[in-house]
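User: I've been going back and forth on whether these two constructs are worth ordering. Before I decide, could you fold them both?

Assistant: Sure. I'll take them in the order you sent them. The first construct and its structure tokens:
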Amino acid sequence: MKILLTNDDSHDSPLFHYAIERFQEMGDLKVVVPKEEQSWKGKSMTRFEPMDLETRTICGVTAHILDGTPADCANFGIYHLFEDKPDLVISGVNMGSNVGIGFAFSSGTIGACLEGNIAGVPGIAISQLLDRSLFRQWYVDRSFPEDVLARLHAQSDRLLDRVFEDLYHQDGFWKTPVTWNVNLPYEAVPDCDLVWAFLGQTFYGSCFKKEDGKVVHDLDTVKMDEREQADGVVVRGGHVSLTRLDMRSFGQV
């Protein structure tokens, strides 16, 4: 199996390092990842700025570091790193969940998989719900507590085994160019289920504020979809949410 792996958190994310270690065991793994964090970039692509490309070894694998967006990385990887197209695009593991319509359309993690779908390749976007304190620690000093990382890695091993087994049994999985949006809970409950959830009608308000004469990102209110089968409710309840995203459905009459 030929796999293209990318993310939107850049190459230094410890959750991305976990993904490299895990998915290189599944087949021929090629890695293309943004040079800088590209959260909230959706499926945007670079048009006018030339992008730098470098390589480095991460977790024993040659990683291509592209100064662009996740969708840039997916497109470049699909058409320039494989003799034929890959069988699968995996994006993640993202720091933080990607649930609800507002955040799904904004997510660079999902955007990379959607770019793969345009090329006719199925994608799996994997996101990890995190505690707010971990976000703060990461953005302040780019580190995670080792005990938390060890727990998340062990939990992800258990849950992703189940996720991939379930997805592989979906009718037409390898031939249908859709994105499977997977969100992992921060702490799985003892009876953790894989729940086929819908993309919740979760929306946000202002994303910006004025600060010292500049306009900076500052997410304000978020209106959550609290229905039982909404993806956000599922993952916050300690279960795994799986949601099928099919961009080709927009073109149906």
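The second construct, handled the same way:
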Amino acid sequence: MRRRNFLAFSALALASPARAFNAANFKPIPTQFLAALGEPKAKSGTGAEKWGLWTLDPGPRGVRLEKYNDLLASGVAPAKWSFDPKVWWLEEHGLIMEQPSPSVPAGRYVVTGDRAVETVLTIFPKDAKGEQRWELADGATLYDVTHLRCRAARYTASQGSTACTPGMVDPARFPVPPGEKMPLVKGCDAQDHAVLFIVGVEA
């Protein structure tokens, strides 16, 4: 993940035609990290209840693959997060990450991929089935606000598999080039997530 603590609304961003929303309605926050699922060209969709949120950059809080046995033995990372051997995450440098919070509160957020586009993401309240819609403003797509250098994947055991652990990951597959999928791991299902930066919330 990008080692970044804060992104303010700059004068350049305020003048950018790629951000048409009224910045006065939002307040900047220390950068948070959103793990999103959806088609890159999608401008809206459902399934936001399956997204995840890291309020702190999970990269520096991660554990190197060669330290996996220590992590498994203790069950707790040096950064004090708990490890679940049934569901685990990797980032683009091969660090084992803590799991994101399993849901994103409904609301309006300023999001960016730290490229050309900064816009508003609306996460709607859950409906009667527990599903959440999401929508990007300004005609932006999920790809537009994805930080391509950040890669994140959730690993779980494939059906019929008896083993799926970070110990089976090939360290030579890292770092993962920007935009490429995270490595497959024998016996595991990998679910790649787009990573968005949340840099503001509705005031």
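Notes on the second construct follow. The mean pLDDT is 89. Residues 11-202 form one domain.
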